[in-house]
Amino acid sequence: MDTSPSSPPTKKRKMATDTTAAEQEHQFPLPAILTHPSATPPILITQGAEGRLYKTTFFSPNIPCALKYRPPKPYRHPILDARLTKARLAFEAKVLERCRREGVPVPAVYAQNAAAGWIAVEWIEGAPVRVKINEWLGQRPKNEEEEKAADAKDQGPLVELMKRIGAAIAGLHRTGVVHGDLTTSNMMLRPPTRKTTRTTEQPNGVSEEEAKAKLLEGYVVIIDFGLANQSQSDEDRATDLYVLERAFASTHPRAENLFEHLLESYKQTFGKKGVSVLHKLEDVRMRGRKRSMIG
Amino acid sequence: MALETLQIEHVPSDHHVYAALFRDVQNVDFLQAQLIGKNPEFEYAFIDASVLISRTHLFAAIFRALNTLTEGTLQTPNVHSDIVIGLSPTNNISESYRRYGLTPFKTRDVLVIKVVYPKLSSENSTISSSEPPTPESTWQHLTTHIQGTPVPVTDEELAKSTDWAKVRKYYKLNGVPGVERIDTADEEGRRREMEGLVVSGIALRGL
Ligand SMILES: Nc1ncnc2c1ncn2[C@@H]1O[C@H](COP(=O)(O)OP(=O)(O)OP(=O)(O)O)[C@@H](O)[C@H]1O
Ligand SMILES: [Mg+2]
């Protein structure tokens, strides 16, 4: 978060009144906090069921941030709604801070006004893990036979990524937090900050092979703690893993067989506790299967 | 040297924030006396620069205070004192003044913030002149009354003042796994991590 002395006051800044382009694009009125000037207009990234996520800058023009806004729900009683939103966002902010102190990879909190329905957190560079895995799988042989043969050989980088994810989740669980909505969309893969010396050694750039190997490099950062809870129970932890397992299988069916590496690394990182969580996971799976048979 | 106008993202455009940094200030006791005496000519946030690690750290406290000002939920008599206590991750107001504000004969480097914004007429009752202060008049006033050497409010200059032992204590950064897991050789990595925790501490106070 480096900052340089900011420009003189005479510099023209984006004012609320000339963010109309952004606003039209958004189709939604901006939350009040984003109507004040910033060096670049906020960009709407996602519009979920619960809220909207904007990319903007915080404190200084060179600090990108993710601002999560939960607008009032017209169908809920206004006072109750405000209270629920505030409690939810406050909890999300506290969980992020706790994780950060404990060394679990999550975004830092920059600012919040939970009562007004927003929190601003560190922007994580890179892409959601979902996107990266699909990019990787997209480059794999389409033919099933060939793929099987190739699997054993060169799924190495993906296996390594699965292990990093497992370790990150173990770290999260160890702090007494369960995520509540683990998917490969709620994890970012932040590319490593490269040393410039490497590229100067290779004036011809990187080979296709190398570029491919680099695709899955990076640091796994867990995001979106909107449904997180405090829990130390095997059951809740196993449910967290089960939700991810199901989401993973439907998002990346071609890599489903690699999920075991994630679980193995979770267990390795978490030690004894990990063993009993994985044991519980079998019960949770069983119940899940029964439920889907009935339903 | 001149007063710097801070451009802080997402602050109302009619709110102006000025900053200056003075090194080796000789009359901290005089400045403190003006605050205690509620001298209306000294409506400033005076911060002991040894507790600041960077501009971002400073901006976090200012942002927080401006936000409470806009919401009408100031915790102290005015936005300037709210900036000082805004640095604190805890709710103990008098302790916050002691830690982040001036301490005669201890504070050496002083960071000054002046906020100018459209006040309600009732808020102006203590001020005789109706002319709002300008960067020039503010700079004039500060350099007349502060006996110290003005330096630019850059990360480099702020880093020279930082007392890390204090920062670590006030923001509870000692023995924190999130910091300790970073290689001690990676000083910049550690500094950034601590800055992140300091900013979060400021943002979360009161939740
Ligand atoms: N801190 C961040 N840095 C970079 N990108 C982010 C960050 N937070 C969110 N995103 C991007 O925005 C998308 C949606 O964010 P998020 O998952 O937090 O919102 P949501 O799913 O709408 O929230 P909720 O489930 O609480 O309603 C993410 O998948 C990611 O692409
Ligand atoms: Mg999400």
Automatic annotation (TrEMBL), chain A:
GO terms for biological process: tRNA processing; tRNA threonylcarbamoyladenosine metabolic process. Pfam families: Kdo (PF06293). Its main location: nucleus. It is an enzyme of class 2 (transferase). One of its GO terms (cellular component) is cytosol. Residues 39-295 form the Protein kinase domain. Keywords: Activator, ATP-binding, Chromosome, Cytoplasm, Hydrolase, Kinase, Nucleotide-binding, Nucleus, Phosphoprotein, Serine/threonine-protein kinase, Telomere, Transcription, Transcription regulation, Transferase, tRNA processing. GO terms for molecular function: ATP binding; hydrolase activity; protein serine/threonine kinase activity. It is found in: Chromosome, Telomere; Cytoplasm; Nucleus. Residues 1-23, 183-207 are annotated as: Disordered. The keyword Transcription regulation applies. It catalyses: L-seryl-[protein] + ATP = O-phospho-L-seryl-[protein] + ADP + H(+); L-threonyl-[protein] + ATP = O-phospho-L-threonyl-[protein] + ADP + H(+). InterPro entries: Kinase-like_dom_sf, Prot_kinase_dom, Tyr_kinase_AS. Its EC number is 2.7.11.1. Component of the EKC/KEOPS complex composed of at least BUD32, CGI121, GON7, KAE1 and PCC1; the whole complex dimerizes. Belongs to the protein kinase superfamily. BUD32 family. Component of the EKC/KEOPS complex that is required for the formation of a threonylcarbamoyl group on adenosine at position 37 (t(6)A37) in tRNAs that read codons beginning with adenine. The complex is probably involved in the transfer of the threonylcarbamoyl moiety of threonylcarbamoyl-AMP (TC-AMP) to the N6 group of A37. BUD32 has ATPase activity in the context of the EKC/KEOPS complex and likely plays a supporting role to the catalytic subunit KAE1. The EKC/KEOPS complex also promotes both telomere uncapping and telomere elongation. This is EKC/KEOPS complex subunit BUD32.
Automatic annotation (TrEMBL), chain B:
The keyword ATP-binding does not apply. GO terms for biological process: tRNA threonylcarbamoyladenosine modification. It is found in: Nucleus. InterPro entries: CGI121/TPRKB (IPR013926), CGI121/TPRKB_sf (IPR036504). GO terms for molecular function: kinase activity. Belongs to the CGI121/TPRKB family. It comes from Pseudoneurospora amorphoporcata. Component of the EKC/KEOPS complex that is required for the formation of a threonylcarbamoyl group on adenosine at position 37 (t(6)A37) in tRNAs that read codons beginning with adenine. The complex is probably involved in the transfer of the threonylcarbamoyl moiety of threonylcarbamoyl-AMP (TC-AMP) to the N6 group of A37. CGI121 acts as an allosteric effector that regulates the t(6)A activity of the complex. The EKC/KEOPS complex also promotes both telomere uncapping and telomere elongation. The complex is required for efficient recruitment of transcriptional coactivators. Transmembrane segments: none annotated. Its main location: nucleus. GO terms for cellular component: cytosol; EKC/KEOPS complex; nucleus. Keywords: Kinase, Nucleus, Transferase, tRNA processing. It comes from the Eukaryota. This is EKC/KEOPS complex subunit CGI121. The keyword Amino-acid biosynthesis does not apply. Signal peptide: none annotated.
